[in-house]
């Protein structure tokens, strides 16, 4: 799927939702707050679409939309691959001109014993490149990892539109 396809389907869903939620036909702003399962490859794809739609709703330009979708994709894939599956919550923050998107990715997997190492580019316990977590942090403005061995991992990340 190309970036254009994704963008197009994000816009189409927003349009449909606008019609469905506005009896008078006028599109009303709808705060996004949704939790998605991250338990399959298909879920990873759905999550990308949902995050794209939220970034459009929050008014981000295309390059920032893609930054946020990429971060979400890396975090969701980590929850799926390393955490045994989990969830992603998407929230649109703020009012008026200052808007943001918050991603909260949770799993109840093995946890991350050494967060500094996990954030180091090239460090991996799997077969990836070891760039996902550090890359996601660089793409977002606020980034918190809450993890405990055998209890799971929650990563919270925000990007704002005014920085
Ligand atoms: N949710 C998680 N649960 C447990 N361990 C994790 C989690 N997320 C990351 N890690 C650990 O941190 C390491 C680094 O993660 P990172 O996303 O940077 O690289 P990767 O997933 O191994 O490869 P890729 O470049 O494909 O993302 C992982 O190899 C894994 O050991
Ligand atoms: Mg990864």
From TrEMBL:
Q: Which residues form the Histidine kinase/HSP90-like ATPase domain?
A: 63-163
User: Which InterPro entries does the UniProt entry name for this protein?
Assistant: Anti-sigma-factor_SerPK, HATPase_C_sf, HATPase_dom
Identify the keywords attached in UniProt to this record, alphabetized.
Answer: Kinase, Serine/threonine-protein kinase, Transferase
**GO molecular function annotation:** protein serine/threonine kinase activity
Q: Under which name does UniProt file this protein?
A: Serine/threonine-protein kinase RsbT
Domain of life the protein comes from: Bacteria
Transmembrane regions listed in the UniProt entry: none
Concerning CDD domains, the annotation shows:
HATPase_RsbT-like
The UniProt entry's coiled-coil ranges are: none
Protein species of origin: Streptomyces indicus
